[in-house]
Amino acid sequence: SPMAEKQDPVAEIRSFNRFYTNIIGLLDKHILESPYSLSEVRILFEINNIGPCSGREIKNIINMDEGYLSRIVEKFVRQKILKKVRSKNDARVFDLSLTQKGQNIFDSLNAASENEIKDMIHSFSKRDVDDLVKNMRSIRSILSKIR
To answer: Average pLDDT of the chain?
Structure first.
């Protein structure tokens, strides 16, 4: 019966995941309209967030295949979006950071992303926005126990 299905946590989680994937797809439209993939934008985001860091640090944060990550990094270095500098702490390691060009690209993608979310929630009541944020924090808190 439909009521029994509503009680099935596996079905509910799968249903929520499909629903949320569609929302994310809509929110990532601007990235899909840019020349950068979601993985590429994610790399720029992490480097912008944590500052100069090694490829291994990025890999640990976003859990990406090392070969794929290093191909993106090399492409970005060639395009002068990232710069590689030998680490002061370990000569075997290169620190990656955004160039000015990379910073400009990141800033415009980031602004587009923020504007899209503002557009999405602007018609919600303050209470709905507060509930949404509170519930997202709750979901994150519970799911973070997976690791």
So the answer is: 90
* pLDDT the model gives residue 29: 73
Give the C-alpha separation, 21 to 100, whole Å: 33
Query: How much is the average pLDDT of 1-5?
Result: 53
Tokens found for residue 18: 């499909």
Q: Using DSSP, how many helices (H) and how many strands (E) does the chain show?
A: 8, 2
In Å, what is the CA distance from 37 to each residue of 40, 64, 109, 128?
Answer: 5, 13, 11, 31
Q: What are phi and psi of 85, to 5 degrees?
A: -130, 135
Residue 31's pLDDT band (cuts 50, 70, 90): confident
Contact 94, 52 (CB under 8 A): no
Give the alpha-carbon dihedral of 40, 44, 50, 53, to 10 degrees.
70
The residue among 69, 51, 52 whose CA lies nearest residue 60 is 69
Whole-structure pTM value: 0.78
Whole-number Å distance between alpha carbons of 95 and 14 = 39
> How many residues are listed for the chain in this entry?
147
